[in-house]
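Spend some time on the protein that follows and explain the fold to me:
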Amino acid sequence: GAAMLRSFGSFLCLWALRLPVVPAGSGAAARGLDVASYRERVRAMFYHAYEHYLESAFPYDELRPLTCDGQDTWGSFSLTLIDALDTLLILGNVSEFQRVVNVLQEGVDFDIDVNASVFETNIRVVGGLLSAHLLSRKAGVAVEAGWPCSGPLLRMAEEAARKLLPAFQTPTGMPYGTVNLLHGVNPGETPVTCTAGIGTFIVEFATLSHLTGDPVFEDVARKALKALWKNRSDIGLVGNHIDVITAKWVAQDAGIGAGVDSYFEYLVKGAILLQDKELMSMFLEYNKAIKNYTKFDDWYLWVQMYKGTVSMPVFQSLEAYWPGLQSLIGDVDNAMRTFLNYYTVWKQFGGLPEFYNIPQGYTVDKREGYPLRPELIESAMYLYRATRDPTLLELGRDAVESIEKISKVDCGFATIKDLRDHRLDNRMESFFLAETVKYLYLLFDPDNFIHNDGSVFDVVVTPYGECVLNAGGYVFNTEAHPIDPAALHCCRKRKEEQWEVEDLMREFYSLKKTKKFPLKRTSDHGEGESAKDPEDASSEKGGEKRSSKKNTHSLLSCPSQSFNSKLAVLGQVFLDNT
């Protein structure tokens, strides 16, 4: 095990490694950047936006900051609330986290006649709920007996994900881009989906499968990833949009930005989360082709996927995630060089325009806006964990100053429509609170629990053994929702073993012939008295699991692994020495 993990090289989550302390008087401190005061400004930024969302926009998806009202954008899920939930905990606000968990349980319904983006619903809703579920014990929520393998937020995440499954029923296994949450895929739905909309599921769906014991989610996510891999061009590149029925590429531009971006990100993060060599080797193959064909002077251009000829010499703001991703595979020098290129663009405009023409050094017509995206700040956060280079804190400072100066309005923060004249748009995307503010805060908060280096952790005891959680090494989904990789090992008893254990327990207690341990099933959601008897819980579970009745949730819908099983936390294998 350890050898395999070492062979993965240095791609393990760098932000969680122990790093040398920068001597006092050097770097950012010497340059007069007061980290604590910026951290507090970021906190104030969060609450200015969040409180106005609650006041003026809830229960709609998003705040419209110029008119102080709300609108539904990606469905009708109170999306900003789901997206902001784990940020609340990262800022240390446990009471509001607990309140919102209750509000969401009462108020969010996925049985609605709404056409939803499969990609956006996954990364924002499923990702946000999974992350909040795994953090809920840390936030002081009273969790049920089977947690983290059961719980109300997990059930909601699973329900939302099930609504997306019909999209994956295609000849290729690549999903449609849109699904109706009530009726499935609409007749006449376009079969053309972007690459990211096909390859950005493994983090959330594998987490769901590992926690719930239902393999269907991870299976469809893997099938989609492999279909893209199979359809790459002879020179090793993928295009931008593909027909999910015929597997013909419709848009043949290859690059690292919009339409492709998070496919590459999820190969790396999926490999880390699942300790999966195959996903990592796919990424490393792509990485070679990307360097060979699209990289020029530490910029990345768009090229024709079959010929490799340049199609657009453009930098898109979404590409700014790439240095952070490079840092995760240990390629820190290249990451820094590309980051510094992107930072020069930020300094030119006080934000990253959606498109930037590299040869001309200016914005592209109709693409001059900055919707408060997180990607450059995200890369700065990762690179700062890896290098402690004070330049990265300076980007954070510039972002705080820019966003406050240009984008802040009475009712929140508004998308910047044009970086040249600072005109604003009446929209505040939910990713502003999910990602931009979170990554800024984590950049300025070196002691946050998210940056845990494994020196402290929690042990959760279940009737089946112990399980380590909150040891660090969190993997952020592409909406900045952190997933604890250790949690995937809490619920992974194989089904057959599970039945054996249960049969043994049944035999043992039937021998006792006492009335103390009734072997009857309690009600589906019995979280009351019966939760106190682990034996009781396990015996009722056999019945629960085997019945195919929809929405049965036993107290222990999946037992945890014993402590001597492999735990992929920070790339170390913990063994029980007793």
Remarks:
- Residues 502 and 508 are 10 Å apart (CA to CA).
- The first helix runs from residue 2 to 7.
- The first strand starts at residue 62 and ends at 64.
